[in-house]
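Please check the following for our workbook:

***
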Amino acid sequence: MAKALTAKGIENIKPTAQRREVPDGLIPGLYFTIQPSGKQSWAYRYRFNGRPRKFTIGPYPSIDIKTARDRAREAFRLIGEKIDPGVEKKASRAKAMLPANDLVEAVIARFVTIYAKPRMRPVSAHEVERILMKEVATAWPRRRLSEISDTDVNTLLDGIVARGSPITANRTLAWLRRLCSWAKGRKLLTANPCDGVEAPADEIARDRFLSDDELLAVWRAAEAQEPPYDAFLKLLILTGARRNEVAEMKWSEVNCETKTWVLPKERAKNKRAHEIPLSDLAFDILQACPRIDGSDLVFTLNGKNRITAFHLTKQRVDALMPDDVLPWTLHDLRRTFASGCARLGIAIHVVEALLNHKSGAIKGVAAVYNRHDYAPEKQSAVATWANYVSALVSGETQSNVRHITKT
């Protein structure tokens, strides 16, 4: 019986005038081959369907003894599954020679460039790219999208949930599904592997809005912040605009004569230009913001970039809030604005116009022909809301508001 090959033993095998095959005494069928030229390699001999076959593993020393044995064992496993390892190797090699335009990472890059960026705001497109590259591309390196199955998708999502990120798993599935649908439309896929895959985590639509006491506490905490974050927080409360919309505000977007702020369609989430009336209170706060010569940005520290320290600002605000306040987000201020306006008797279609939502209150033919922009109603609404907030802050008409002392 042949002895198991060792690295030292291989070094002692010298080339001869004839090609030599030295059997490995550990793995039956595995041979170390040395040519008269001195070239060395590994091969695995086996029988398939009654016929002798040879599977070339690869050259030595780039493939060492351990790797050669592992590949011989894998070949033996394939034979047991009625798969010819030699044929499988040729098929894999042919597949590797195909164009790499359907590799997962390549498809993601094209999807972001061709689909996401033209349709989404830069910050949103960046988030889509981050999710797909971090969660998908890194999990399936050098995998072809056409090879991905629903089992692969579920395994991927289960891993994300297991690390404690169920909502991220939901977002990953949503964008992977969109990616695969897009790829299918471009004939890179014949079927979407996400079809039939359920979101791994239940999500409850957020309905958090701040009470009057909580809103007052946020306003007081905003007053304790350094400029321009103090004004930034107050404008969120008074306009109901989104965080990034306010943070990216430019002086050129503000009409001082009409006291309106025109959000361009390029920065609007729904790609529709949006005219936001400014109450006297909001306009005065805006006018008091420090300006940097040569900069069009309203909320900036250096004149070149808009403010970005939202998380830190939120922490500082929370530190000044009462201990019994439930968790909240800056986006909840937008929901508070909408709820507060509705509570003050402002019509729902006016509130939706203020939020730049396509109103669901007007439907059918009326929705087609109604092109009124509700500018007077919107101006009245923001004034009513500003008066209500002012009353909270001053305590003039809201005797039940608990005052929060700044610390």
